Amino acid sequence: MTIANMTRLGATALLLGSISGLALAQGATEDPATPLPPIYITGSGIKGPQSTASGTVFDPATLGTPSYLDGGAVLTTLPGIASSRMGGQGLDIVIRGLNSNQINVIDAGAVTYGGCPNHMDPPASTAAFARADKVTVTRGYASVTNGPGGTGGTVRLEREAPPAGAANGFTGEAHASAGSNANALGAGGRFTWTLGNGFYVKGAVEAKDADDYADGAGRTVRSAYEQTSGGLTFGYVGQGFDIALDYDRDAARDVLFAGAGMDSPSTDTTVWRLRGGVDLDAGALRRIEAEVFLSEVDHVMDNYSLRPATGMFMRVPTTSDTHGGKVEAQFTFGSTTARLGIDHQSNNRLAILYGGMAAARPAIEAANPANARFLMWPDVTIEQTGLYAETETELDAANTLKLGLRHDHVKASAGAAAGLPGYAAAAPNGFYTTYYGTTFNDARREDNWGGLVRFEHDFGGGMTGFVGLSRSVRTADATERAMGRSNWVGNPDIAPEKHLQFDLGVEVKRDDWALTATAYVDRVDDFILRDASTFAGVTTYRNVSAQLAGVELSGSWQSGGLQLTGDLAYTRGQNRDDDAPLAQIPPLMGKLAVSYGEGAWRLGTQMVWADGQDRIDPARDPAATPGYAVFNLFGSYDISETVTLTAGVDNLFDRAYATHLARSNAVDPALVQVYEPGRTFHLALSAKF
C-alpha cells in the first residue's frame, strides 16, 4: 500500500468515526478566552501557543496546523521564527539570524543530526512532533542545561507520563487534513493505554503525502514528498520513580527539491531512547534524572532517479549516527534550586559522492569504489562532553536570579581525510592543504566555557521583566570542519563561535490584552562564515567577528468574541571584520490577525508580511528581495466536545513571492530561492476518544 493510499484510508476512517461521534454529541464547549495561535486561529477545540518574552510553548496536537506540514513549517508559524525552503518538506528554521546547530532541537532528550550536508532533512523535519505532549521554543540562550551549542535558541519536544495512579484505560486523538495545492494529505493519531500498577504504553503514527505545488504565478515547483512516522513508548510511573523506553521511526520517500541539484529517494531515521528519574528525600538532593539515546539516519540523494538526468549521474548515500546521554541531579537549598549534570553526545557522519555517465548507473548504485568521486563527509566524528551547573534563587517575592556555568570538551576527527583505500575519490586532505595549508590527520580538541546571569523582576499588576547576559560556544559542524568537495571545502582548523549575548524583555498580561517585547545584542567572536568570495568558484569557511541585534514583539487583545493578535521580529547581522552585512539574515517580518467567534465557532483573517531585504552579501545571497504581504482566511467549528473541524485559505490572493532565506545544494553551493506555495484551500478534522 502506498503512502498516499494509507493517508486516504486514514482520512476516511477518521471521517466515519467523526460522523458516529456526531450522533452522540450533546453540545459544544465554550472557552472564549482561549489564547490564539498565530496563523491557524480557531475556537475552543484548538489551544494556541502560549507566548512569553523569550519563547513559546504549545501542544502540537491542538495547535491547529494541517497535519501534512513538516515540523519546520509548523515552527515557522510561531513568533520570531523564519525558515529557508528547498521544496515542500525539510524547511530549515532560523531564530535570531542563526540556524543549523546554532539551534538545538532536543526530542525527549535525544539529539539527531540530519544525513544531508545541506539540510534536506534538518532535525525539525524528522523530530517526532506527533508524539510530543509539549513543545517549548526558547529564543536566545537561556539555560546551560540544553547541551552544547544552542546559541540562537532551543526547541524542546517533551513527553509526559500518565499521572501516577491513573485509572486503567485507553485515550487517544486522531486527525486528518487535506490541502488543495499539491493535493496534500495528512492523517495520524496518538494514544495512551494505562495498564495498571503504574505501567503504560503510548504510541503515535502519522502519514503525509503531497505532489508538486504551484506558486502564485502558476508555476509548478518541485516539492512532492511522502513521509511516514511512528513510535511506541513502554513506561512505568509510581512511588517517586519513572522510566520509559522509546522507539521512533521516520521514513521519507521520493522527496523533490526545487532548490537543489538533487532529490532524495529515501531518508530513514531511527531513534532509541531510555529515560527516567527517581525522587529522593536525601537532604538537599531531591531528584536524579538520566537518559541515553541512539539515533541513526540513512539518507540518499541523487540527480537522476526522480528527475530527468543531464550530464553526469551522481548519487550520495550518507549516514549520520549519534549516541549520547545525560545524568542530572536536582537540589533544593532553601529558596534556591540547583541542577548539576553531565551530558555527552557523539555524532559520526559519512557521505561519499559516486558519479559516472548513464552506463555506470548500476555501479553507482552499488557504491562501487571505482566510481567514488568525493568524500564529502570523510568519516567525521565530533564528540562533545559537557559539565554544567545552574541555580535559580528567589531573592524575594518579586526578584529571581538565575546563574549558570558550562564546560564542554570537544574532540573532532576525520577518519578518511587521507582517503579510503581502494576508493577513487580524491583525498580531502588535498583540498584542506590547497585552501588552508593543513590536513585533518590529527584530531582537533577544544575546551569551551559558557555561562549566564539572568535577573527577573515582578513589577506587579501582571507585569514582569528580565535582563540577561550569557556566553555560549558552538563548535563547527561536520560540513564546516571537513566538507571534502573540490568546490566546497571545510576548514579543519576553524575555531568555535563565541557568543556574548545581552537581552532584556518585558511581559504584560491583563484581563483583555497581553504584550511581550524583547531586545538583544549578540557579539560574536570567531563567527563561522561560509565564504564564497575569497576563492573564485569555491566555498570555504573562515572566522570573522560579527554582531547580531534585534527586537521581538508579540501581543493580543480581546473584547467579547473579537480577538486581535500580532507579532514582529527584526534581526540585523553585520560582519564586523569586512564591514559588510551577514548573508541570509531575515528582514523585518511579522503577522497580524483578527478573528471573531462565539462558543463553538471562530472565523478570521490574517496578514503575513515581510519587509524587503537589501542588506545582503552579494557573494552568498542570491539577490535583494522585495517585501510582501500575504492574506489568509481561517475558521473552526467544534462539532462536539471531542470533534473539531478547521478550514482555511492560505495565500488568498495567490501572490507570487519568496522569502529572503535560500539554500544551496550538494552539487553547487550557490544559493537558490524557492517561491512559496500559491493559493491553498485546506480542511482538517480532529477527534479525541
Description of the molecule:
With 689 residues, the protein is mainly beta. The protein has one domain: Maltoporin, Chain A, CATH 2.40.170. It is built from six helices and 34 strands. The protein has helices spanning 3-24, 71-76, 123-126, 361-365, 428-436, 478-482; strands at 50-51, 55-58, 81-84, 92-95, 103-107, 134-139, 153-158, 169-179, 184-196, 199-210, 213-214, 220-221, 225-238, 241-255, 263-282, 285-302, 313-333, 336-356, 372-394, 399-414, 444-460, 463-474, 484-485, 488-489, 497-509, 513-535, 538-559, 562-575, 580-581, 589-598, 601-610, 628-638, 643-650, 680-688. The strands form five sheets. It has a 22-stranded antiparallel barrel. The chain has a five-stranded mixed β-sheet with strand order 1-2-6-7-5, with no helix packed on it. It has a two-stranded antiparallel sheet with strand order 3-4. A hairpin with a 2-residue loop joins strand 21 (444-460) and strand 22 (463-474). The chain is globular and about 65 Å long. Mean pLDDT is 91; it is low at 1-44. Residues 1-25 form the signal peptide.
Task: Summarize the topology.
Layout: H1 3-24, E1 50-51, E2 55-58, H2 71-76, E3 81-84, E4 92-95, E5 103-107, H3 123-126, E6 134-139, E7 153-158, E8 169-179, E9 184-196, E10 199-210, E11 213-214, E12 220-221, E13 225-238, E14 241-255, E15 263-282, E16 285-302, E17 313-333, E18 336-356, H4 361-365, E19 372-394, E20 399-414, H5 428-436, E21 444-460, E22 463-474, H6 478-482, E23 484-485, E24 488-489, E25 497-509, E26 513-535, E27 538-559, E28 562-575, E29 580-581, E30 589-598, E31 601-610, E32 628-638, E33 643-650, E34 680-688
Parallel strand pairs: 5-7
Antiparallel strand pairs: 1-2, 2-6, 3-4, 6-7, 8-9, 8-34, 9-10, 10-13, 11-12, 13-14, 14-15, 15-16, 16-17, 17-18, 18-19, 19-20, 20-21, 21-22, 22-25, 23-24, 25-26, 26-27, 27-28, 28-29, 28-30, 30-31, 31-32, 32-33, 33-34
Domain TonB-dependent receptor-like beta-barrel: 211-652
Pfam family, one: TonB_dep_Rec_b-barrel
Keywords: Cell outer membrane, Membrane, Signal, TonB box, Transmembrane, Transmembrane beta strand, Transport
